[in-house]
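pasting for the record
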Amino acid sequence: MVRYETAGLYDVSLRVSNAAGATEQQLAGVVRVEKTPRAEFAVVQDVQDPYTFTFTDQSEDAQSIAWDFGDGSPFAFDSQVRHTYAQQGTYTVILTASNAFCSALRSAPVGIYLSSTSDPAVSDRWRLWPNPTTGWLHMAWEGELRPQALRVLDATGRQVYTEDLPRPTAHQLDLSHLATGLYLLQWRSGEQWVSQRVVIQ
């Protein structure tokens, strides 16, 4: 077995020998090795409509692609597509990149989280500003409500920031290192997580 590490055309030489002698024949370009496609994509959640995402293909050495949005909708085949989900949740998006010889897959989760909390006694006793923000966020809690931890998720549901809190009444958070877009800020009090959408401009 011969393994080629680089795509291209390769010559093959065959040498046959016995006690009487040897002969050799060379064939030019009889082995053709193609590049394996690499599947990759970028995703951006719409700031105005958080149910809608724009997916952009960034694959290499692919002749065709196919998008599976993870919600049972029909496949899409364009290099850039906008897709709108019907309800909140986490969906696994799969991009298949193919050429004439093989295919490669890339999957990533996207999340839609809208509600802040179902308990009005909690939602009325904390504030976050400014929102949208260019980076700095200010938070304040009233009464006995105190946060113990917070985290920030991006549009794919990936955690991009986390911090333990000493149960403060106010807190400042610097998110200026994050790219512009829509994020989900969550903080925990006891066993309850409270969520709030945050837009970074």
